[in-house]
Amino acid sequence: MKLMHCTQCNDVVSLLREERRCRCGKAWGHYLSDDRVVEYGGPCRIIGIRDREFLTALPGEDHIWFVIPELHNIRRVDNAAGRTKKS
Ligand SMILES: [Zn+2]
Known about the structure:
The chain has 87 residues and is mainly β. The chain has one domain. Helices cover 7% and strands 34% of the residues. The protein has a four-stranded antiparallel beta sheet with strand order 2-1-6-7. Strands 3-4-5-8 form a four-stranded mixed beta sheet, with no helix packed on it. The chain is globular and about 35 Å long. The N and C termini lie far apart (28 Å).
């Protein structure tokens, strides 16, 4: 499971195939059709939670989450002009 954390408004958004934005609208992200690769942009970082741990977590248990570095399946795609909102 991948979450997008906007460093401007502190909103955390679960990523889906359709593009999602944070509350302030400056950060965005989505899964590509393979459900593995994420494209994102704006002032944010992508957070990972291991799917198996997330699905089986019990109340009171501690689990690991991590900030995912930019790798082959995490693509920052904003440019100097930034990305405009879809209309
Ligand atoms: Zn934001």
